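Your task
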Amino acid sequence: MILVTGAKGMLGSYVGRVFADKELCLAGRDVFDVCHFEQGADLCNQIHPQLVIHLAAETNVDYCEQDPDHAYRSNVIGTQNVARLCATHGAELVYVSTTGIFDGDKPEPYTEFDEPHPINVYGKTKWEGEKIVRQLCPHAYILRAGWVFGGGPATDKKFVGKIIQLCRENDEIKVVNDKIGSPTSAEDFVRNTRHVAESGFYGTYHLTSRGSCTRYDIACEVVKILGLKTRVTPVSSAIFPMPALRPRNDAARNYHLELLGLDRMRSWQESLADYLEDWSKGSEG
């Protein structure tokens, strides 16, 4: 039995497809709110999971900055509860973290062997979650995602979805061009999560689509792939002040997976093209 927390989120929407041949308990917050240990204990006593894929988290970076109590409760205490349940039931754990745990000062992409130094509340909570997982669960896979895209027309409220909407409503859009990161296909992430989780190589891994770019680069690629006429203008992030600081660079290299010969992630351009093709089909339907 595989228990999936946060199963109604962007990553969770792909789990049923990728793990279709497995017995799954897809637990949204209505089934298991990770902030409530006893609720999880009752569920685990019923289903006896062998693997827990912990996707539940507060991922809104600015909201985390505005309400740190909520962020720490969701991302640290919630992870502590899940890790404790895994330790109690002898279950393996997949914990999804973020490349946003780095401060952005490195000029090259970060590897798993660089020391994290988060600069916002969201990054701090995910880094604390990593430390808790290492303390409580020796049989764990810590997987760091980058700028995740996925979900489709009905659920994509993140950057790619917003760009598509803006392009449909405007002749010109302005997009930040001074922050570098690694786009990450949600579907590819889940597919490779299964691959890593079945490897037996417990540890910490970057799991991003290959390559790095700016948000401006992504927007230009979206416009090109969809054949849109919108003009994309690069601007400084100072144009769009936000509550939380962002690293100048949180691009990542899947170095640990490369060394093990386990990196099956595609380029971000290839994954984005496939995603937008599916998006177009979903919009037509």
